[in-house]
TrEMBL record, chain A:
The chain crosses the membrane at residues 250-272, 292-315, 335-359. This is Putative hemin transport system permease protein HrtB. The lineage of its organism: Bacteria, Bacillati, Bacillota, Bacilli, Bacillales. The complex is composed of two ATP-binding proteins (HrtA), two transmembrane proteins (HrtB) and a solute-binding protein. Signal peptide: none annotated. Residues 17-196 form the MacB-like periplasmic core domain. Residues 252-361 form the ABC3 transporter permease C-terminal domain. Keywords: Cell membrane, Membrane, Transmembrane, Transmembrane helix, Transport. Belongs to the ABC-4 integral membrane protein family. HrtB subfamily. It is found in: Cell membrane. Its main location: membrane. Part of the ABC transporter complex hrt involved in hemin import. Responsible for the translocation of the substrate across the membrane. It is a multi-pass membrane protein. The keyword Transmembrane applies.
TrEMBL record, chain B:
The complex is composed of two ATP-binding proteins (HrtA), two transmembrane proteins (HrtB) and a solute-binding protein. This is Putative hemin import ATP-binding protein HrtA. It is a peripheral membrane protein. Belongs to the ABC transporter superfamily. HrtA family. The lineage of its organism: Bacteria, Bacillati, Bacillota, Bacilli, Bacillales. It comes from Paenibacillus aceti. Keywords: ATP-binding, Cell membrane, Membrane, Nucleotide-binding, Transport.
Length: 371, 260
C-alpha cells in the first residue's frame, strides 16, 4: 500500500535493523524447535515409530514402560476382552535397560533390549542383514547407531548383567529409547537374560502391550480388564525417563522466544507510532480514515514478519545442512509452517498497541501546532 | 523577480475587481446559496461543563463566498484555532450550523466528517506538515489514494498543480531537501488536490520570513481567484492582510468585521 511501502523504503536503516532482530529471533525459534524435535526423536524414536495407536500398561506404573508389568494372566484377559472386535491388533512388548559390549572388547555401550514377536507388527524394518528367526533365542537386530560405534553384522554382543551373548543379524533404524539405541530380540532371547533368577509366582511376562485399534476398543478393554491402563503414544512418550524434562525446558525456551518476538515488535512499532503522532493527525485532517491508517500499519508488520520468516527459514535449513549427522536436529514442513503461522499471529498481536494509539489520534492535533 | 512583480500587479487588479464584485453582490443577490462556500450560523463552542465551562466561541456567524479570501486575525487564545477546527470539520460545535458548499455538516458523525474533509476542504497547516517520507509528487498522489482515485489520474493532476505553483523541478524531492517556502507551496498544492470548496490555512506564514511568506500568501490568493473557490486564513502576520479581501477580527470568542 501507498504509505506503508514508501515509509519502509524511506526509513531503510530503521526497518533493516528491526528485520535483523526478527530474523535472529525467528531463526532461534526454528532452530530450538528443530533441536527439540531431534532430541525427542533421538530419545524415543522406538515409541514414535511404533505401529500402534495405544499402549496397554499396568495401572499405577506412572505411564512408564519399564515400571509396568503385564502378567501372562492379564495378557490372556486382554486378548479375550477384545476377541469380539474386528481390526484389533495386540502385540506384547518387553523392555529392559542394560549395557552391552562386544564379546572381544571391554568397552560398554548403554542399550535397551526390546523383546518382541518377530512375526508381529512390532518387527522392525530391516535396513541391513535380516530379521532374527522366530524361534532363535540368541539373535538380535540392533539400531543403526551401533554400526557407528563399530559393531558389524555377525558380531557377538554380550549383555553385561547376565552374560548372555547374542549374534547381530541385522540393522534397523529409528529405534531408540531414553536416549539409548534399541536392540530387538525375540521374547525367548530376552527371557534368557533372566535365567538363573528365582521365578516369582505370577511373574511379569511382558512390560506392555501395543494396541492397534480404535478408541472404543481401547475403552472396552479398560472396562473389562482389571489393573491396567491404556495410554496413547504421546502419554507413553512422556513416561520415558527424562523425556518430559528435556522437552519441557526446550518448549519453555521456544515460548519465551515467541513472547520476546511479540514484545520487540510491539515496542518498535509503538515507538515509531508515537514519533509519528503529529503525522497521523495531519493524515486524519486531510481525510485519511482510521481503517486506512490501520491497514497501513498492519501491512508493515506483516511485510516485515513475512520477509524475516522467509530469511530465517532459509537460514535454518542452510544451517541444518551443515550440521553433523550425530547432532539431533529434525525439522519437518508442518512444524515450520506451524511456527511461521504462530510467529505472524504473535507479530500482529504485538502491533495491537500501536493500532490503538493510531485510532486514538485526533485530527485536531494538526491545527495550531508547529511540526 | 519580475514574475513575482507581475503577479503582484495582477493580483492588485484582481483585488480591485473583486471588491467591485463584492459591492455588486452586496447590492444584489445577497446570500445566494450557490455562491456561498462556507456559512457559519450562530456557532458556539463550550469546553467543559457546569461552573468550569469556558465559552471559546460565542454565537459567531460568517459567510464566505466563491472567490473570497478572508483573513481571521486576533490575539492568542481568542479562539482562532477552535474556529478553524470547526470550519474544517475537525471539531463539532456545541450549537449552531455549518454549511460547506451546499452541505450542512454540524450534526454529522465523525466518519462522515472525514469524508467531508477529504472531498470539500483543503488544509494548509502551520509549517507545511508534509509527510516526511513522501516525495513531493507522492504528497499529492496520497490525496487521490485516500479518495480512491486512479493512480494515473492523480499523477497527472499532481504534476499539473505542482507546475502551476512553480515546483515542476522538485517532483522527486523529499520535504527535508526543500526550502520553507517550497514546502508551504507543496502544502498549498496538496490542499488543491481534492478540488475543495474551501481552503483553510492555519498560519501558513508562521515559519517563513516575510518575503517568502508574502509570496506564499499571494499564491494562495491567486489560486482562490482563478478557481473561484474560497479561502479562510488564520494569521498573526498583519503584513499579509492587504492580500485578503476581508479581514475578520476575533476577540473573546466573537467576530467583528472591519474595513481594511
Amino acid at each position: 500500500m501507498f504509505l506503508a511501502i514508501r515509509e519502509m523504503k524511506h526509513a531503510k536503516t530503521r526497518y533493516l535493523l528491526i528485520s535483523l532482530i526478527m530474523v535472529l529471533i525467528a531463526f532461534l525459534v526454528l532452530f530450538v524447535t528443530g533441536l527439540a524435535q531431534g532430541l525427542s526423536y533421538a530419545n524415543a524414536s522406538s515409541i514414535q515409530n511404533m505401529k500402534a495407536d495405544y499402549l496397554i500398561l499396568q495401572q499405577d506404573a506412572d505411564h512408564r514402560l519399564n515400571r509396568s508389568m503385564i502378567t501372562e494372566d492379564t495378557w490372556k484377559q486382554i486378548q479375550q476382552a477384545s476377541s469380539d472386535q474386528q481390526g484389533v491388533e495386540l502385540n506384547p512388548l518387553s523392555v529392559k535397560m542394560t549395557s552391552i559390549s562386544r564379546v572381544d572388547d571391554t568397552k560398554k555401550i548403554d542399550a535397551t533390549f526390546f523383546g518382541i514377536d518377530p512375526e508381529g507388527s512390532l518387527a522392525p524394518v530391516i535396513k541391513e542383514g535380516r530379521l532374527m528367526a522366530a524361534g532363535a533365542d540368541h539373535e538380535a537386530v540392533a539400531d543403526k547407531t551401533f554400526a557407528d560405534k563399530g559393531l558389524k553384522l555377525g558380531d557377538m554382543i554380550e549383555d553385561q548383567a547376565s552374560g548372555q551373548q547374542y549374534e547381530l543379524v541385522g540393522f534397523t533404524e529409528g529405534q531408540s529409547y531414553s536416549h539409548t539405541p534399541v536392540i530387538l530380540m525375540s521374547f525367548k532371547g530376552l527371557e534368557a537374560t533372566e535365567a538363573g533368577r528365582p521365578a516369582t509366582v505370577g511373574s511379569a511376562a511382558y512390560n506392555a502391550v501395543a494396541l492397534s485399534g480404535s478408541k472404543t476398543i481401547a475403552d472396552q478393554i479398560t472396562n473389562k480388564v482389571q489393573g491396567i491402563e491404556i495410554v496413547n503414544k504421546d502419554t507413553a512418550l512422556k513416561g520415558i525417563p527424562g523425556y518430559q524434562e528435556e522437552q519441557g525446558s526446550l518448549l519453555m525456551m521456544i515460548v519465551f522466544l515467541f513472547i520476546i518476538a511479540a514484545f520487540v515488535l510491539a515496542v518498535f512499532f509503538y515507538v515509531i507510532t508515537i514519533q509519528k503522532m503529529n503525522q497521523f493527525g495531519v493524515l486524519k485532517a486531510i481525510g485519511a480514515k482510521n481503517s486506512y491508517l490501520a491497514r497501513s500499519l498492519v501491512l508493515q508488520v506483516l511485510t516485515l514478519s513475512l520477509v524475516c520468516l522467509a530469511i530465517s527459514i532459509l537460514l535454518t535449513y542452510g544451517v541444518a545442512m551443515v550440521l553433523p549427522d550425530s547432532m539431533p536436529f529434525q525439522l519437518n514442513t508442518s512444524v515450520v509452517a506451524g511456527c511461521a503461522v504462530l510467529f505472524i499471529v504473535v507479530s500482529l498481536l504485538g502491533s495491537l498497541l500501536s493500532l490503538f494509539r493510531v485510532v486514538k489520534v485526533d485530527a485536531i492535533e494538526a491545527i495550531g501546532r508547529a511540526m | 523577480m519580475s514574475t513575482v512583480m507581475n503577479r503582484a500587479t495582477d493580483h492588485l487588479n484582481k483585488q480591485i475587481d473583486n471588491r467591485e464584485n463584492r459591492a455588486a453582490k452586496l447590492a444584489g443577490a445577497r446570500g445566494s446559496a450557490a455562491n456561498t462556500k462556507l456559512l457559519l450560523q450562530n456557532i458556539s463552542k463550550v469546553y467543559g461543563d457546569g461552573d468550569t465551562s469556558v465559552k471559546v466561541l460565542d454565537q459567531i456567524s460568517l459567510e464566505v463566498k466563491a472567490g473570497e479570501f478572508v483573513a481571521i486575525v486576533g490575539p492568542s487564545g481568542a479562539g482562532k484555532s477552535t474556529f478553524l477546527s470547526i470550519a474544517g470539520a475537525l471539531l463539532s460545535p456545541t450549537s449552531g450550523q455549518i454549511w460547506i458548499g451546499d452541505q450542512e455538516i454540524s450534526q454529522l458523525p465523525e466518519k462522515k466528517l472525514n469524508q467531508i474533509r477529504l472531498d470539500k476542504i483543503g488544509f494548509v497547516f502551520q509549517s507545511a506538515n508534509l509527510i516526511p517520507y513522501l516525495s513531493v509528487i507522492d504528497q499529492l498522489i496520497l490525496i487521490g489514494e485516500l479518495a480512491g482515485k486512479s493512480r494515473k489520474e492523480s499523477h497527472a493532476k499532481a504534476v499539473q498543480l505542482l507546475r502551476e505553483l512553480g515546483l515542476g523541478h522538485r517532483l522527486k524531492h523529499y520535504p527535508d531537501s526543500l526550502s520553507g517556502g517550497e514546502r508551504q507551496r507543496v502544502s498549498i498544492a496538496r490542499a488543491w488536490m481534492n478540488d475543495p470548496e474551501i481552503i483553510l490555512a492555519d498560519e501558513p506564514t508562521a515559519s517563513l520570513d516575510s518575503e517568502r511568506g508574502r509570496a506564499v500568501v499571494e499564491m494562495l490568493a491567486d489560486e482562490v481567484k482563478q478557481r473561484g473557490k474560497a479561502a479562510v486564513m488564520v494569521t498573526h502576520d498583519h503584513r499579509m492582510l492587504d492580500l485578503c479581501d476581508r479581514i475578520v477580527y476575533i476577540e473573546d470568542g466573537k467576530l467583528s468585521e472591519r474595513e481594511m
